[in-house]
Structures are given as C-alpha cells and as structure tokens.
Fold this sequence. Notes:
The structure holds 2 protein chains of 2 kinds. Chain A is of the alpha/beta class. Chain A has helices at 19-35, 39-44, 81-95, 123-131, 149-155, 167-191, and strands at 4-11, 45-52, 56-64, 110-115, 137-143, 158-162, 209-211.
Amino acid sequence: MRRLPVYLLLDTSGSMTGEPIEAVKNGVQIMISTLRQNPQAIETAFISVITFDSSANQIIPLTDLASFQMVDIKATGVTALGDGLSLLANRIDSEVAKTTTEQKGDWKPLVFIMTDGIPTDNWQNGLIEFKKRKTAFTVACAAGPGADTNILKQITENVVSLDTADSTTIGKFFQWVTASIGVSSTRVEDSGKEVQGLNELPPPPSELNIVI
Amino acid sequence: MQHNSKYIKNLFNNKGVEISSKRVDLFERFVSDNSTIGIIEKIRSLQTNIMENWQHKNRVQDIIEKQIIIPNATVNKEYKAFLDFEKLGLNDISYSAIEGLEELGLVYDNEKEIVVGVPKVSGDFKVNFKFRIKDDLDDSLLHEKKITLVINADPKSLWKNIQSDFEKTEDWKIENYWKKDDEISFEKLGEKNIVISSKRGRSHANVGSFRDDDFAYKFFDHTGWSVVCVADGAGSAKLARKGSTIACNAIIEFFTLNFTKEALEVFDNVIKEHQTNKTAETSKQISHFVYDNLSKAALFAHKKIEEFATQINVSIKDLHTTLIFTLIKKYDFGYAILSFGVGDCPIGVINKDFTEIKLMNWLDVGEFGGGTRFITMPEIFNSEKFPTRFGISLYDDFSYLVLMTDGIYDPKFIVEANLEKIECWKDFFEDLQGKNNENVNVNFEKRNIEVAENLSKWMDFWSPGNHDDRTLAIIY
C-alpha cells in the first residue's frame, strides 16, 4: 500500500514555553483524533513529529494514525531550524519508500513547519539538504511576530503567518493542517494524484495570513 | 552514648537552651539516664517512620505521574497488551487492577499483567489503573492513576455507502448522467462465456458520488466476432462517468456498423492463409487490418466524446476516460484476439494450460501517480507510440481473457511488472476461486449461472488504500 507520509517540523525552543507549547501538543492530539475518523486518512496517512530547539530530534518516527501516540514535549533552548531541516531530509531518505518496477513507493511527503523565532544556527546548510528531497508540498507557518517570513519564504513558497502565537491561533493552524491532510489522502486514493500546492488545499481560516 | 549526647545538645541548641559549665556533670548524667535513652530511641524510630512514609508517598506519586503507554487498539481486532512493569521500572508494584475495561470489551489479567479482548467501541478512553506497591499493607486502599487507551474505529465502519441516486428523481438522473452504482453481466460469447462486474469504489460510495468505470460487449452472430470494452473515467474529470459510457458504446457502435460480413471476408482469408502458410506478406496484411480498423474505432470513440462535449458546451477534458477493448473470433484453427488500449488498464490472455500470460497492451503509467493517458486526448492519435497500442494474438485455445481497471490491478497485482508474471495470475485466479479472507468463490465452470453474482461478491474484497471503482471482465 502506498503511504502518505506527513512530517511535522515543530519549534520547541524556549520562547514557546507556556501557552504556545501546550497549544501545539493539544493541536497534534486533536489532529490525530480527527484524522482517525477519516476512512481514507486512517489507511494512508503516516505521521512523524520532529522537534527542534538547541538541536533537532525525531520524537515520533513515521507512524500510522491507528498506532500513533503523542509523547510529551517541552520548550527549551534556542532555535536550530537548520538542524531540523537536515534531520527531516535524512528521515525522508530512510523512511519514505521509492517506486521501483518491483514495488510501488509511497506518495511524496507533506511537510508542515511551524516556528515562532529566527533560526540560531547555520540554517542554509539544512535548507540545501532539504531542497534535494521531493515533497508534494511544504507549508511553513510563522507563529507570532518573532518569526521571519522572509526566511521561511526561502524554504517554501507556501508560507502562512499567525499574528500571535496563542492557543486559538495555533489551534486554528492545526485544524487547517488536519483538513489539508484529509484532502490530500482523499485525493491520492480517489484520483491517484497528489496535491501540489496551497491553492489545492482547503482555504485557510482567517487567523492564518497567507504570505505572498 | 556520644551520639545521644550530641542529639540532645542539638535539640537544646535548636530550642535556645544553653548548658552552663556548672551543669555539665548533670547533663552527662541526664543523657545516660535510661529513661532519656528510651525516649531518644522512640523519637528516632518515629523519625524513621516519617522518613519512610515520605519516601513511600513520594514513590506512589512518581508512579501516578509516570506516563504508562499501552498500544492503541482497534474495534473488532483482537487485542493483547503486556504491561511490562520491569521495563517501565515499576518492579515494586505488588498488585494491580484496571477498572473500566469491561465496557470496552477488554479484561485485565493481573497474574499475567496483560490486557486482552476484542474491543467493541472506539474512542479515546481513560481507564483507572489501581495498584499497591510492596511497602503497602495487604489490606490498604489501592492507589489510582489514569491510563489513556485509544481504540480506533474499525476502518470498514468509517466508510459510508450513500447511493448516488439517494432521494433523486428520474429527471435528476437523466440530467446528471446517472448510472447504476453496481452492474453485473453474464452471457455466452460464441463458444466462450463472459462475466463482468463493475462496482463503484468505496471512496465514491463514501460521498454518494458516481461510478466512473464502465463496460460494454457484444457478440455478432453473423460474423462470429465479439467485442468487449472497459473504460475508466478519470477521477479528476467531472463528467468522467459519461465519458467512459460514451467510449464503450461508441466502440460497440463502430463494429456494429463496420464489421460486416463483406468487410471481413478478406481478413478471414488472410488469417486462414497465415495460419497454414505464414509469410511476411500475410503478417503485414493482418497488422494493417488491425491497425486500420481498430484505430478508426478508437478515433470514432474520441469523436463521439468530443461531439458530446461540444453539444453540452463543456471541455472534452471533463470527460477524460481510459479505454481498452478486445475483439475475439473463433476460427477453425483457434482464436484470433485483437486489442487496443489507452490508459492504465490491462488486457491479459492466459493460454490453455495456464502456463503463459500475454499482456496484450502496455500501460500508460507515469513516473508518479496520474501519468495516464486518455482516449479523450487528441495528442495520443498523433504520437509516434500510437501504432504500438494495438495487439494481435492467435491461440489454438485460451483459458481466460481478462480485462480490468486499475481498481482491480492496483490491489491485486500492485505493480505493472507483476502483470507479466504467470505466478501472479495464478495467485489472482486462486484468489478468485476462494483463496481469500472473505471465502468467496467464483466458480468458472460453464454450468454455474450465478458466476456474475459470485464475482460481484468477490469484488467487495477489502484492501486498505484501494477504494477506486473496480471493473473486471473475464472471458472463459
């Protein structure tokens, strides 16, 4: 079966402490429960969570929705986004199956990145690695005024921003991520086609500003 | 003794009591007094008790706060989870029980420390884990903590089956190019039989949308030829269901009009000659006949769809459909099988002994999903690959001639390469004839008149991630 891999690359630096990190945890939890009710998503979508603070860490390897269990995350340290992107590239290489004449590979992965700050490491190196991998689409979310959308624009053309990083806005972001995964899994199952960009995803709620 | 003296001194010190130099002797006697020693021992033992109580409470709290993760369960799927206390660092748990499992269909065996059963309800549940640790008294109250248990719904139960014509009028059906969600057919096709089932996929059933696949066939009594077509309307094209219908009907119409006795006379002679005395000339004439007639038929189907698109003022892309068809006739020497295909649906012929499979057409599959071609694309007719879309095979006899859409081939053959492997076709026919989880048997004996119903039932097979429309035609 062709899996639809979904990678969440989440900022867990110290500035996320308190409401934002709780909102992220909650957002992932609700996302999983919701997707479990979607017959196409529960069969195709596989989710991985990679966090980055002073370094990056894949806290959940690519896991099917039915067996997914969220682990606790804590906000601490600085913002090693580059390290996160490198690890993401590395994980895509080892977890996403390629198509050969003998086997049907996985669908191209969906990537959602969320950060509330400016990278503190040499992020361009990570970006170079990440850019070599094929994704169906990558969405980057600048959560609150501390994030730099210009940097995110270099990672992907699909950038959204939240005016503030609080439980409402982060919750809305994850709701939209949930709907986007739902649409993508229906699409691959129905028509054998991948969603290519932001315009094919459900319209984002008003809390999400599309950065042009 | 020294110890006791220090203890009392500390106590006095804490209370601001000083021992003057005149009273040192008295203090020494006081400390050595048996009653003082007894009291100190009592205090020490009480302090030890307090310390132990605290450590115990602390430990219990540690356990309560520790995240105990047990694997997620699924409704109707046997569940067994071992609570590995050793691995969790909970060796000191001396007794455990879990409350709230029974109503979920599970039980906890506290001897083996496992949760077992077949879950009945889905959801995110908190169950009560009750325990004693080894320092607890045997009759003490149990400690309690919540454990999260996720029970996934049975994936099959999440799919809805909404009839595409649910609460719709006859007029609505006509206006919306409605077709039946499921269609079956069984008939004699000359000396062979044909059985076909075409089923709307679960992804369409889930939202009440239409079946995009279609098929048609016809036996021409006066010439002995039969034609069978299968078409798979593109999921992304909004009127694909109509495109596939028009394509199939057009092919039948074309051969009804053009495969007249007179028109076929030359071919019949050539093919007989070819069989007894094969020459480059006979081969050429056959190829020419196949190309000439089948390409005209394909173009006819394209034109019919184009006309329809113009007539209702939509883009032909809205009617995108793949198309495969095969023509078959029994001669004295055996069978001639002709074919044409555009798109990703295979036509396979299995020889009499089931030792060889011939794939009559190559499949249009892109590097990534969605790279298929459609009969509705004008460019396919001008492509240099166009002449390779035709096939001809001569057999003294064959066991099965099979046409299918990707709704069947994706789950059953997985990759294109497997369509050319006889082992995979053997597995496929074993599966059809009962080797499946659902225990459905499609009996291909000629006297079985329920073969279409059998096939229809078989087509409900469960395959995660494969919920496309399914069409399978077997000539046998």
